[in-house]
Structure formats: structure tokens, C-alpha cells
Amino acid sequence: MARNEGSLYRRVADDLRRKIETGQLQPGNELPSERMLIGSYKASRNTVRKALDLLINEGLVSSHQGKGYFVRQDNTLPYYGRRLETKLMGSSEIYQVWEADLRELGREPRGDLNVSSTEPPADIARMLRLDEGQGVIARKRTRLVDDQPYAFDATYYPYALVENSRLLGAVDIPGDPDEVLAELGHKLKRYDDEVRARMPNPEEERALRVPPGTPVTELARIGYDQADTPVRVHLAVLPGDRLRLVYEHGRE
Amino acid sequence: MARNEGSLYRRVADDLRRKIETGQLQPGNELPSERMLIGSYKASRNTVRKALDLLINEGLVSSHQGKGYFVRQDNTLPYYGRRLETKLMGSSEIYQVWEADLRELGREPRGDLNVSSTEPPADIARMLRLDEGQGVIARKRTRLVDDQPYAFDATYYPYALVENSRLLGAVDIPGDPDEVLAELGHKLKRYDDEVRARMPNPEEERALRVPPGTPVTELARIGYDQADTPVRVHLAVLPGDRLRLVYEHGRE
DNA sequence: AAGTGGTCTAGACCACCTT
DNA sequence: AGGTGGTCTAGACCACTTA
Known about the structure:
The structure is a homodimer.
Chain A: H1 8-21, H2 34-41, H3 45-57, E1 61-64, E2 68-71, E3 83-84, H4 94-104, E4 109-118, H5 122-127, E5 136-145, E6 148-158, H6 159-162, H7 178-183, E7 188-198, H8 202-208, E8 216-225, E9 230-239, E10 245-249
Helix pairs in contact in A: 1-3, 2-3
Chain A binds a DNA duplex through helix 3.
């Protein structure tokens, strides 16, 4: 109960949010049912549902049909919050570091490879400095840990650069895939990371099994060769509620 | 029109989403009005509104009362997508780099300072390795460019470390605030960045004027002294639709 | 004034979970 | 069977924008 500003559904949402923020409702706790809220706020069902929707889209609450609404846990699982060794040029494929970390923890990462030759998305084309019509080879994976999806990633190579290489095959490259680029005369010299937050599309929501209201971190790692030409982009889509990117600077 | 899976409102949303993704509806274009959609899908108003809500929460669409629904622009404005010179230990306060960049572009960054002594949020306490009850000095700012808010940031110092220093005053520290730490015998030696995506709370939505469905990137930069003790956390909250973090690795 | 979206109600039927 | 959330309808009134 409170005399807040604005519309009824906002007042309901504000009240519930405050109860969550002050700890009156703890993570995992069940919220009052729709029926209860209808009674205590003298609101219609649609109105209390709209309030609950707001909290869901803020990432504070999740709903489960037949069970109820629950306060979401802040689950930055420790074994997902890995470190990126920014000096490691040899293993600049991010997932290699993760996989090594995961194996140390006794968990088995997996992921089926999908290789295709396509037009790149606009973002990727910009990063690889490709003109309209220039294609790419895309090597995509949904990565699973203990059969649960935890990240999606893809590596894009300009088609013209790798057209006769092993990278076209739908098989794992033993060791470092960047080695293939080196064999082709494009040894990596440096890379840039571009990090942004966005909402997942429905496909990603399904593939990563993220609840509504969960943004993803999109990390694009652009690799450049000796001539400073971008030769590949490694893209990772990471659920915001499971992952925290860590960069270490200036460590000896 | 299409025979998709699932509920009616999902089919409507899927259709509209496809039109956006294929470019049939371009960024900035107006979507069909609710009335039109009711007609073409033979759905009730609540149902088409639910479909439109979905697209809004995916960050694809925005609505404007009295005007209509519009396809959102992917506005990673170039002058916000700044570079982080990761080697610059002396000006590791991120905003200093940004402000210099902005001034180069002839834009005037501003931001009112707010200094307070409080209990730190759980995240900050973890990063500063503080026990229950140990306070911090928080120096917070909402940064404006040309009177438009574009980022929120705060720096947290353990109270015990800075209790008699200039950092307690609600005035700008000329030069580098980390210099004050150095004077106190805690010269910064290295720092870690922790990056995560999350949804803004209503306060941040208001302060940063982000439309619904826009996640933020939260960047925490933890500074350590010679004894490897964390001495300050600089936290930045960056609207995901305006900013792209760039890290450069291995550049000469 | 007419068109657009924003809030709210009352009621119906369905799907899922627990007992 | 009874409670919970999920989808959908029909209609009302309000607020904002454009002409």
C-alpha cells in the first residue's frame, strides 16, 4: 500500500519492487498470486498482470504457469564468470579459455558445429570492412555444458581469404583455428573487442533458454593481420544473468 | 500473413518482426496502427497490443502516444563508441578519456557531483573486499552532453582509506582523482574490468531517458594498489543503444 | 475533430501444477 | 478438484498529436 504517482499498474509494480529491493521479498520467494493482488489493490486482473509483466521485463521476477510468480535469483554463477587473459594472443578464441576453465572444474563443454557460406550481417560486414556482395564463411556453435546451453558463438571469415582452406569443412580444427589463417599468410597481430548489451531475439531466447527480461552481452573480437586487415570476427552471445566478462589490465 | 506456431499475439509479433528483419519495414518507419492490425489479423485490441509490447521489450520497436509505433534505429552513435586506452593507468577513470574525446568533437560534457557516505551495494562490497558494516565514500555523477543525459557513473572508496582526504569534499578533483590515493600511499598498480548486461531500474530509465526494452552495460573498474588491495571501484552505467565498449589488445 | 496510443474493467476459456 | 498463470475478447474513457 502506498500513494505513489502515476497509473494503477505502476503503483502495484512500484510497491512490489520496493518489497523486493528492501528484502521483504527474498530471491526465490513467491509473490502474492494474481488473485491476491486483485483483492489488495482493488484492480482488475489485466491491471495486476500488467504490473507483473513490468517486473518480468525488468528482470526482477519470473513466472511459472500453474505455480506462481517468483523473485529471480541474481545468478552470476561463479564458474561462468571467467577471466579473459588479454595477453594470450595465441588463444584469442575466447571459448578456448572458457573450455579449459570448465574442464578444470570437471565439467564437459560440448557444442555442435555448423559451417555455412553466407552474406554477413551488417555489423560483421562493417567489422571485416566488406563491401556489399562479399560473402563470409560462418562457423557457428551453441555451446552446452552438462547438456545445458550456456553461450552461442560464431566465427566469421571473409570468403575470399579462406576459400580453399580447412576452415570450409564442418569439422573441428584441432588446436587453434587462427593457425589456419597463419598458414594462409595472415598471422594475427592484434585484436579489438567490441562489447554491447542488447535484448536477445526469440531464436536466441530459445537456444540459450533465458527467461524474458534477460539481456545478452554481445562480444565481437576482431582479429587483424600484419597488414592491419581484419581477417576474422569471433562473436559470442552471453546471457547477462549467467556471465560477467572480466578483463585484467596491468597485471604482471 | 503466415501460419506460424503458437498463440495469436505471437504470430502477429513474428510477422512484424520478420518484416523488420527483412527490411520491408526500415528503421524509423511507422508500423501499421493498432486499428489496422486488429483488422488484418482479426484480433482484439488487447491482443495486438500484446504483440507490439513484445517487440518493444525486444528493443525492436518504440511507441509514441498520439503518433504511432516505429521501428527503432540502431543508434550506436559514433561519438559515444569511444576507445578505452587500456594502457593508460594514469587516467583509468574512464570518463576522462570520454570527456577528452567529446571536447575534441566540440561537445561540452557536464555532470553534477554528488558525494555521500553510505553502505555499499553488495556488488561493490564484494569488489572492495569489505565486511558487513564497513562504509564507503561514493562520488556519483549523471553525465550530460549538450544537456542530454548519456551515462551514469560512480566511484566508491573504502571509507577507512580516504576518511581525511579531499575525496570527501563535494568538489571536483583537479586532474586525476587517483592522484589523491597515491598521496595517501595507495598508488594504483593495476585494475580489473567487470562487464555485465542488465536491465535498468526505473530510476536509471528516467535518469538516462532510455526507452523500454533497452538494457544497460554495467562496467566496474576495480583499481588495486601495490599490495594488491582494491582501493576504489569506478562504476559506469551505459545505455546499450548508445554505447559500444571498445578494447584494443596488442596494438603497438 | 479525428486519429493514435495508454489505462482499465469484466468475463471467458485454456494449460499447467499440486493434492 | 481447485489453484495458478496464459490467452483472448468487447467495450469504455483518457491523453497526446496532427491538421
